[in-house]
Amino acid sequence: MSQETLKALLAEASPARSGDFLAGVAAENQEARVKAQRILADTSLADILNTPLIDPAEDDVSALIEAQHDAEAFRPIAGFSVGDLRDFLLSDQATSEAIAALKWALTPEMVAAVSKICRNQDLIAIARKRPVVTQFRTTVGEPGRLSVRIQPNHPTDDAKGVAASILDGLAFGCGDAVIGINPATDSPSAMRRLLDLIEELRLRLDCPVQSCVLAHVTTAIDCMARGAPVDLVFQSIAGSEKANASFGINLSMLKEAHDAAQAMQRGTVGQNVMYFETGQGAALSANAHFGIDQQTMEARAYAVARAFDPLLVNTVVGFIGPEYLYDGKEITRAGLEDHFCGKLLGVPMGVDVCYTNHAEADQDDMDNLLTLLAVAGVNFVMGVPGSDDVMLNYQSTSYHDAAYVRRALGLKPAPEFEAWAKDVGVFDEAGFLLPETDGGDRGLIARSKLLEAAE
Amino acid sequence: MSDKIEIAGPDDQHPLSRLRAFTEARIGLGRHGAGLPTRAHLDFAEAHARARDAVHSDFQAEAIAATLESAGFTAIGAASEAGDRATYLRRPDLGRRLSQRSVADLASRAEMPFDLVVVVADGLSATAVNAHGAAVAMGVLNAVPKSWRVAPVVVARGARVALSDPIGAALRAKIALMLIGERPGLSAANSLGAYLTFAPKPGRSDADRNCVSNIRPGGLRPEIAGDKLAGLIIRAAELGLSGTKLKDDADDRLGVETPAAAIGPAAD
């Protein structure tokens, strides 16, 4: 099969979304889409493996995908078509262990292909069977647990403002994925100041959490060289060398940052030190998609992610805007696809369930996607005070949302964090949020000494 | 069994409420079970509804043109290739291209090159432009040198920021100033953004522009924005450039945010 034929087939088989129309690669009508899905279902995995979508000699992500492939692990499914793979993944034969054994057999293009012939229900049912567990100071991703990133952003990085948002989140039992701040200013000194702030709060409360300031990877490298308390290194990544270059990064920079963070040995229960963010449409917006549909490009980003054993990978699914994902239906589909593809590739997937004000979406759409993802076993979601990110100007899931979905589905936080939260009176003995009137958060607020600092 | 059910008090009793002085974030909202208290839920819904309405509000192009003309300025309508709002939202590339008819209309006005064209455009918040687009445009036009040859104000529908490139090129304008509705936020749905481009022509990038954002009552006030923008425009004309290099020079004097890319997706 030629490169162009496979690209076109994947694109035309992709469930409809505005970004593929914008790129001019979408099927021309619905029937053409289903016809492409039938052809894709009959396409062999071996054909996909042998047809790199970008020449590996010209694209280091493609070279990485090729290098990651494990021919030995692939042998049991080497005769499969994409349709066979779907049938297998749904079957009772495909236990958690059996799917996990395929981690390095599957390539991003294979999992993208199979996702395109899955309904939402299939994406949930299969992903649910494939937990991916990672560790730093907490253990994230175990079945029956859902972790939350506290996202305490502030338009001017005001220390008291950030701390207040963190404390609000801790009182809801959030923060067990990470306390992660998008800084208003990307500089080593600004990053250091925010890291010190979280570090002080963490130690004062004796709370098992990890911190991250989501500055550029080079800023983190600079900070680590100066001995700043860097737990996790952040970077946005995408599915081609050219798209990564538009973020000002390459694979060797990620390696350098990873090795530096690991050398600091700051984790207690594990040493997964990277936090990556991705999102469908990122490559297209950098004109670095090579005619590949946005969902396949997104899956290729996970090849980059899994090369560095991250603690957390987060697809920021609705942030990019309606020209890539138009409405609640497209955002929902993309969130489930990304989670599914990431998990099959062994990536610890979380999802920023979110939208902008020019997308045809609202809180009801977010409630739906959050609930679906929690059923699918998503590792973590965002916790933003009242859903309103006052720095990035978009809406994500809130501390309340996290508490809702944990309660509705009986999900608990990371075990280390759960123990701490019981100890400070935020959770009851069963690991669920105590009534607010019981004053657990008052105790926490008192221990933080934040109110005194604010006088 | 007839005991009255008591529900916890309003959220201003929340222990974190004192910390709201340090952040606009929606902290200390309180909760019932895991749920958001009714007041906080409806506060959010109202802010979002305002933002949604701003994205889809009618662009009052005729009223803006009439306001400008009654003050003695000339106005001319233009449109991008994005025919309707749904297309506009899905296809930003079409919102950056000028319709054939508008190309012809504008070119017919450009017998001689202009020093400046001001564009007033809907962008992602017609609410913002309807409210203060004309006022800011007039503020600018009143503050630039009287000796300048100024093009008719272009009132553009279905516009992205970069539509000022083909508009400026069609009018042979040395400088284009785009006044455009910014993507509404929950805190403000009526912000206008101003984007300045020296030697506008299709293919300019965000790095070639300077941006002044958050023009609204409660932000950079519309009645003083015109003077501020005119100062920036005059400086660009003196130096013969816009974008990052102009920022380096003008940053401290004007408090200008630039390049446009640094402030994110905004209206582009």
TrEMBL record, chain A:
InterPro entries: Aldolase_TIM, EutB, EutB_dom_2_sf, EutB_N_sf. The keyword Zinc-finger does not apply. Pathway: Amine and polyamine degradation; ethanolamine degradation. GO terms for molecular function: cobalamin binding; ethanolamine ammonia-lyase activity. Its EC number is 4.3.1.7. It holds the Pfam family EutB. Adenosylcob(III)alamin binds at P183, Q235, S285, M391. One of its GO terms (cellular component) is cytosol. Its cofactor is adenosylcob(III)alamin. Gene3D superfamilies: Aldolase class I, ethanolamine ammonia-lyase heavy chain domain like, lyase. Binds between the large and small subunits. Signal peptide: none annotated. It is found in: Bacterial microcompartment. The basic unit is a heterodimer which dimerizes to form tetramers. The heterotetramers trimerize; 6 large subunits form a core ring with 6 small subunits projecting outwards. Catalyzes the deamination of various vicinal amino-alcohols to oxo compounds. Allows this organism to utilize ethanolamine as the sole source of nitrogen and carbon in the presence of vitamin B12. This is Ethanolamine ammonia-lyase large subunit. It comes from Jiella flava. The lineage of its organism: Bacteria, Pseudomonadati, Pseudomonadota, Alphaproteobacteria, Hyphomicrobiales.
TrEMBL record, chain B:
It comes from the Bacteria. It is found in: Bacterial microcompartment. One of its GO terms (biological process) is ethanolamine catabolic process. Keywords: Bacterial microcompartment, Cobalamin, Cobalt, Lyase. Binds between the large and small subunits. Its main location: other. GO terms for molecular function: cobalamin binding; ethanolamine ammonia-lyase activity. InterPro entries: EutC, EutC_C, EutC_N. The keyword Lyase applies. GO terms for cellular component: ethanolamine ammonia-lyase complex; ethanolamine degradation polyhedral organelle. It catalyses: ethanolamine = acetaldehyde + NH4(+). Adenosylcob(III)alamin binds at V161, E182, C211. The keyword Lyase applies. Its EC number is 4.3.1.7. Pathway: Amine and polyamine degradation; ethanolamine degradation. Gene3D superfamilies: Ethanolamine ammonia-lyase light chain (EutC), Ethanolamine ammonia-lyase light chain (EutC), N-terminal domain. It holds the Pfam family EutC. Its cofactor is adenosylcob(III)alamin. Catalyzes the deamination of various vicinal amino-alcohols to oxo compounds. Allows this organism to utilize ethanolamine as the sole source of nitrogen and carbon in the presence of external vitamin B12. Belongs to the EutC family. The basic unit is a heterodimer which dimerizes to form tetramers. The heterotetramers trimerize; 6 large subunits form a core ring with 6 small subunits projecting outwards. This is Ethanolamine ammonia-lyase small subunit. The lineage of its organism: Bacteria, Pseudomonadati, Pseudomonadota, Alphaproteobacteria, Hyphomicrobiales.
